[in-house]
Specification:
By secondary structure, the chain is mainly α.
Amino acid sequence: MPSDKEMINNLIDYYTNLQRIKKSDDSEKELDYQIKILKAKLESFGIITTELDL
């Protein structure tokens, strides 16, 4: 179970990532980048993301 500080840190990361997408000149490119980073993080914990892709 993550600590409160870890959960707050994760929420701040999510918020800043969404802000980056919103403010980006090329939001599609930024969104693709954010997905790539998140997939790498999930896969580092052994979570396979291919079944989640649309």
